[in-house]
UniProtKB/TrEMBL annotation:
<dbReference type="InterPro" id="IPR027470">
    <property type="entry name" value="Cation_efflux_CTD"/>
</dbReference>
<feature type="transmembrane region" description="Helical">
    <location>
        <begin position="44"/>
        <end position="62"/>
    </location>
</feature>
<dbReference type="GO" id="GO:0005886">
    <property type="term" value="C:plasma membrane"/>
</dbReference>
<dbReference type="InterPro" id="IPR058533">
    <property type="entry name" value="Cation_efflux_TM"/>
</dbReference>
<feature type="domain" description="Cation efflux protein transmembrane">
    <location>
        <begin position="16"/>
        <end position="203"/>
    </location>
</feature>
<keyword id="KW-0813">Transport</keyword>
<feature type="transmembrane region" description="Helical">
    <location>
        <begin position="12"/>
        <end position="32"/>
    </location>
</feature>
<keyword id="KW-1133">Transmembrane helix</keyword>
<dbReference type="InterPro" id="IPR050681">
    <property type="entry name" value="CDF/SLC30A"/>
</dbReference>
<keyword id="KW-0472">Membrane</keyword>
<feature type="transmembrane region" description="Helical">
    <location>
        <begin position="150"/>
        <end position="175"/>
    </location>
</feature>
<dbReference type="Pfam" id="PF01545">
    <property type="entry name" value="Cation_efflux"/>
</dbReference>
<feature type="transmembrane region" description="Helical">
    <location>
        <begin position="74"/>
        <end position="97"/>
    </location>
</feature>
<dbReference type="InterPro" id="IPR002524">
    <property type="entry name" value="Cation_efflux"/>
</dbReference>
<dbReference type="GO" id="GO:0005385">
    <property type="term" value="F:zinc ion transmembrane transporter activity"/>
</dbReference>
<feature type="domain" description="Cation efflux protein cytoplasmic">
    <location>
        <begin position="208"/>
        <end position="283"/>
    </location>
</feature>
<dbReference type="InterPro" id="IPR027469">
    <property type="entry name" value="Cation_efflux_TMD_sf"/>
</dbReference>
Amino acid sequence: MHDHEHGLRQRLGWAVGLTVAICVAELIGGWWTRSLALLSDAVHVATDALSLGLTLAAVFWARRPPSDRLTFGWHRLEIFAAAFNGGSLLVVSLWLLVEAIGRLVAPVPVKATEMSLIAVAGLVANLIVLALLHGIGLHSLNVRSAVLHIVGDAASSVGVLVAGALIALTGWFWLDPTLSLVITAAIAYQALRVTWEAAHILMEGAPTGIDTRVVRDALLTLPHVRQVHDLHVWSLCSQCRCLSAHLVVSDEGLQNVSEVLARAQALLRERFVIHHATLQLEPNRCADGYLCANHRHPNDSAWQCCVE
């Protein structure tokens, strides 16, 4: 396991380094050739570097143990970084949009040949990054997402290459800001999605793909479980799901607490990929003045006060 994590960090480190190098090269190339499409693609590459960097940080910081003050460890660092970077990318996207519209109104000459050569270098570097990530993407949701970003950036590099060739042949300088608008739209979409997902996690929302009603019904199928209430499902980061719930069990279940807990934990791990679950078992009756839920679905007048 240690060797696998070391290899993962090493290959992710190389991928981040190459992606940052592409970004810097395209920023300089965009300024030199006056190509807004290259500048836009540089920002697109920055989103890839961000995704890979967050993945690398998550792999590294997640290994740090919790402390008395940080009882869940450093998992949330990934989410705060994603929210900040997503917001900053939206600001950059707005600037690129304004600049592209201005260049459509008054086209600016670009160095088409140099623009194409830089796009070729970016495409080759993207292919190298894909080769580095090949084979490790199956082990991490973040890496699989980053791979999709890299594929999208490779497609953008092809677009810049084609646009550069057409500009060199036809002199249609309006192609540069037009392509920039397409790339900017892709950046804004990714930034909005990242920002929204980060905000959802910070609001302790249910993880993507988790329906709490389905989780409740699944727990109710377990032997001896009669009711489920105070059910909460949330994420610490993009890969760490947590759950807490109260399980009302029969008297027989209270005599086999270890078995009930083991079955519930196994169900949550295998069906919902929830590895951190805190479950409280309660007797199959309501204590005086206790607030409980007798229904499986929250729409069925779920909460009522039971008094013996």
